[in-house]
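Below is how a single chain appears once it has passed through the pipeline. First comes the sequence as given, then the structure the pipeline wrote out for it. We keep one example in the README because the format questions we get most often are answered faster by looking than by reading.
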Amino acid sequence: MDPLTHALAGATVAWAVRGQTSGRRALLVGAAAGLLPDLDVLIRSASDPLLAIEHHRGFTHSLLFVPAGGALTALLLRGRILAGILAYLSHPLLDAATTYGTQLFWPFSRLRVGLDIISIIDPLFTLIVLAGCIAAFRNRPRLVYAALALTVVWLTLGYVQRERAFAAQARLAASRGERIDRAAVFPTIGNTIVWRSLYATNGTVRMDRIRVPWRGEAEWAPGPALPLALGSGRDFTRFAWFSDGWVARPPDDATLIGDARYSLYANRYVPVWGIRLQPTRWVNRSRERKVSAAEVWREITGRNFP
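Resulting structure:
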């Protein structure tokens, strides 16, 4: 998730654990512990453009590393160790709830855990932890605990919505007479109503949008169908691992191998990031990703769906 949300969540968790005895220092310790795991973004190499994606959300996000990271933060800021550890833990757990993938079980497994129940940027979730942080600052413990309980409710709703999106995806594939070989659904920016749907069938990946209102029937907007990219070699394998196997070339650029989980546009496939080979180059278009609030609202309300 975004750094602001991590800091607010860590601060709220730390205060809930030790705020009655540590006061506002718990907020400082929690915010720092909530941010510390992302120091792995400093791991990069000019000669190896894939080193950064290989290690981001890696060992610093591992459950094994949590006690050391949390205790270190608490000791440096003269806070309570338990508060630091639990605030630090909030970071990898929240990241694992998103799509990008988090190596929770490093070094025993390189599995990238991504539960796909909340968007990497979710303003409502951020507002909940902000409210919890403000309540902690004002020494209102009941409101702090209520905010944390509400975060659990919100994540649970994301899980329910994800399962409903999967069910709608299965109906969509059946209506096309297609067998699903592998499938995933991802919440789109800022909501759990509109989902990006991917499923593989006979070497092709179908990219659709599925709208799952909190009440009522799901509907969908069809998207492109493209061949799954095949390749070999160390760098292709590393990128495919990072992308959880969802790799496809955009129709207008056969030299680019893109992460099909993310696209700059809702109705066509323009990968946010990808690689070019021989030599390997990392392509990042995230700064071109200008999400219009009006467009997001039209999708949420269903006006962009048939």
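Residues 177-301 form one domain.

See the next section for the split statistics.
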